[in-house]
């Protein structure tokens, strides 16, 4: 059955703040994420992204995946002017009409985030989606499993190992929680409920040398700082409400998560696919998250991870996926965790949607085979500076260590954002960690010369 892939990364359910607050570069990056879902395509499929794939990337992708007959649509091609792929733009007459012309009841649906707008669109197009799935997602079923605050509730109930913390609603409660939690490690992170990639997160630390992994703002505070002092810093750097009952116009009334921050921890992830019961959820891939200081790529599988930590991570990932399956969720589940310096494996959050690793997984499967985790080390990075995608792709094709023809190493270009931010996202691989690192260095050197 053909599938309709929708890269609705800029859904109103993805972030707790306006996309305009990211600035031009940040907005471009979100639109670039929308295009990476192209790696999920097969012949006969169609895809809707916010902006069009670049001509150079379309040519490259067709060559790598042998795509001869796919339909590529974008919001920018139509009459929509919104920077969001949200309810207003997805359910507009123009968008619905263009999608209706290319789909019918035999088509399945693969969105980046299966939010309420997507559920309404699936019903409008009469796609091949079960009534149970439509009902679940139409009620906001995916929302609760992308909420960091709700995660702490159900994960604690299941016994999942999580960092000490507290869910708060207003600025005063957040400040008190920060003060109460600081004695654990001297560092506390304050997280927005519905933001991705560390956007908006604030780190409070008593040690200026602590790297702020997963946070966009850091406040170095003195030992013994008062809740009033924390509250004053929050007022300048975190969009929390000052009073429980009076939400400012336009501010989403969501929760705030305050957690103990473990400096110098190792950041890990796992991705699980959740199908209809009785099929058990299956682990697709897992690895290290490269934090610089926010996430900027993966090392897959994790490099020299102790087997006990890996077993704990994967066992709990499947247990959490089984819980979501019982509630009615179907799709991808991405689980973020850390390994502390004293050897504890703690989960930070989960995201019930396509993740930053999903397109990497599909690309690796198509190019390296379904068992790539057993034979290769993969290294990805999101922001490689380059002046020409076409020249870099040409150079890769002519380099015996990068073109994959030797069967032991190679490089793939996963996203082309050159016209907008001057960057590409890449995947390099090799048979072993050393080979993958050497391949990555070769690619970076080639990019610098392009």
From TrEMBL:
UniProt-listed InterPro entries: ATP-grasp (IPR011761), PreAtp-grasp (IPR040754)
Gene3D superfamilies in alphabetical order: ATP-grasp fold, B domain
Keyword Manganese among UniProt keywords: no
Pfam families noted in UniProt: PreAtp-grasp (PF18604)
Keyword ATP-binding in record: yes
One Gene Ontology term of the molecular function aspect: metal ion binding
ATP-grasp domain span: 152-381
Superkingdom to which the source organism belongs: Bacteria
Keywords attached to this entry: ATP-binding, Nucleotide-binding, Plasmid
Residue stretches spanning the membrane: none
Protein name from the UniProt record: ATP-grasp domain-containing protein
Organism: Streptomyces rimosus
């Amino acid at each position: 059955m053909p599938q309709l892939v929708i890269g609705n990364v800029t859904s109103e359910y993805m972030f707790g703040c306006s996309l305009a607050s990211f600035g031009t570069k940040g907005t471009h990056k979100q639109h670039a994420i929308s295009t990476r879902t192209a790696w999920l395509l097969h012949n006969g499929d169609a895809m809707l992204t916010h902006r069009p794939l670049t001509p150079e990337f379309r040519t490259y992708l067709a060559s790598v995946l042998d795509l001869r007959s796919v339909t590529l649509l974008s919001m920018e091609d139509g009459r929509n002017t919104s920077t969001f792929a949200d309810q207003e733009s997805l359910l507009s007459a123009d968008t619905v009409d263009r999608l209706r012309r290319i789909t019918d009841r035999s088509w399945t649906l693969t969105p980046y985030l299966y939010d309420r707008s997507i559920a309404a669109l699936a019903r409008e197009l009469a796609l091949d989606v079960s009534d149970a799935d439509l009902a679940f997602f139409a009620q906001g079923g995916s929302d609760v499993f992308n909420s960091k605050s709700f995660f702490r509730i159900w994960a604690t109930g299941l016994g999942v190992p999580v960092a000490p913390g507290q869910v708060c609603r207003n600025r005063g409660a957040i400040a008190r929680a920060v003060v109460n939690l600081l004695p654990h490690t001297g560092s506390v992170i304050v997280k927005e409920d519905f933001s991705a990639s560390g956007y908006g997160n604030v780190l409070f630390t008593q040690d200026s040398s602590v790297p702020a992994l997963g946070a966009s703002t850091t406040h170095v505070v003195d030992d013994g700082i008062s809740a009033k002092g924390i509250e004053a810093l929050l007022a300048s750097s975190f969009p929390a409400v000052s009073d429980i009952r009076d939400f400012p116009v336009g501010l989403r009334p969501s929760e705030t998560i305050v957690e103990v921050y473990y400096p110098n921890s190792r950041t890990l992830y796992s991705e699980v696919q959740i199908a209809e019961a009785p099929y058990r959820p299956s682990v697709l891939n897992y690895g290290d998250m490269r934090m610089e200081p926010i996430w900027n790529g993966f090392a897959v599988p994790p490099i020299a991870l102790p087997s006990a930590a890996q077993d704990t991570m994967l066992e709990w990932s499947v247990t959490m996926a089984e819980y979501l399956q019982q509630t009615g969720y179907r799709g991808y589940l991405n689980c973020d965790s850390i390994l502390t310096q004293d050897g504890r494996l703690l989960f930070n959050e989960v995201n019930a949607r396509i993740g930053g690793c999903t397109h990497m997984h599909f690309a690796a499967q198509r190019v390296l085979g379904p068992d790539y985790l057993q034979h290769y080390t993969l290294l990805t990075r999101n922001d490689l500076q380059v002046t020409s995608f076409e020249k870099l792709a040409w150079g890769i094709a002519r380099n015996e260590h990068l073109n994959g023809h030797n069967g032991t190493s190679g490089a793939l270009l996963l996203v082309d954002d050159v016209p907008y931010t001057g960057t590409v996202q890449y995947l390099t691989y090799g048979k072993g960690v050393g080979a993958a690192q050497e391949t990555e260095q070769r690619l970076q050197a080639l990019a610098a010369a392009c």
